Amino acid sequence: MSKKRNRSLLMSLTVVLGMTVLTGCGGATAKTSGAQAGKSADFPNKPISLIVPFAAGGGTDTTARALAKAAEKVLKQPVTVVNKTGGGGSVGMTEGSNAKSDGYTVTVVTVELTTLPHLGLSPITYQNFKPVGMMNYEPAAITVRADSPWQTMKDFLDYAKANPGKVRLGNSGTGAIWHLAAAALEKETGTKFNHIPFEGAAPAITALLGGHVDAVPVSPPEVKSQVESGKLRSLAVLDDKPAEVLPGVKTLKEETGIAFDYIGTWRGLGVPKDTPDEIVQALSEGFLKGMEDEEFKAFMKKNGLTIVSKDSSSFGQYVKENDERFGKLIPELGLSKK
User: pTM for the full model?
Assistant: First the structure.
């Protein structure tokens, strides 16, 4: 009996130990899996830097700061703006593309990402980034002085066709987006302008006010206050829909029947190309929800800016199409330095 009891006790002990080992292993495995999943599930768990490739106080900077503030509420981490200026945006975007691919450095990317490479002015292209999302788009608006003889866009174009090269069109710099918009308008309408470059849209508008140029092709927000004060008059918006900040101003298509809705300035967000997709998705969701924030929407409306939100996939396709378009247009204009 004693031997039987010993054998029974030994078998019971073996079963108990076996169950303990299995339970322990199962618990350890579950814990390990949870830890592995947490590597992406807990993103972000520290502050995020947002590189702005333009100077503090400008439109891109103030828009980025407003969005950063809104996105913080969603991402539950501070989003700190860092200005890296130079090269028409190239310096900051280059630094952002070379950052660590962990999602903690996000870069504001602008239309210059798709123009500067074709102008031979930037070492990087859109392929150096993974798109996070788009936040803003503004078309060009052809604007003249209030005392201009041209009352309509048709008047303006008819005169330009009859007098090739005589209309002085101020722009934000040779190869800059508003120069490219004007050049594309020439192609669409069979006109020829005298393009006069300035160091940005603001100096071009000042020159218009002073009568040194005849018109400017800049964004509606950039001429909003002067139009409202009666100093300037916008003839048409180069887009498929009117600009909310320029009530009563028709599109080029409404004025002339010519469709023009493919060149404007835009702002979005990108991360280095090797950033894991799940982190890109988390950032995209966070910033896009930030664009729905009431304070952000109020900021954009107050400044006459248009919110155009696109997720990672649709923004990526949009940027690719922009790059292809400028890859053809810039060499046609003889501006490529490649």
Answer: 0.84
pLDDT single digits (tens) 235-283: 999 999 999 999 999 999 999 999 998 899 999 999 999 999 999 999 9
Question: In 172-221, where do the E strands start and end?
Answer: 194-197, 216-218
Residue bearing tokens 């041209």: 150
Q: What is the pLDDT of residue 338?
A: 57
Ordered structural domains, the chain, with CATH: 48-139+264-333 (3.40.190.150), 154-256 (3.40.190.10)
Closest CA to 115 of 87, 139, 135, 136: 87
pLDDT in tens, 46-95: 999 999 999 999 899 999 999 999 999 999 999 999 999 999 999 999 99
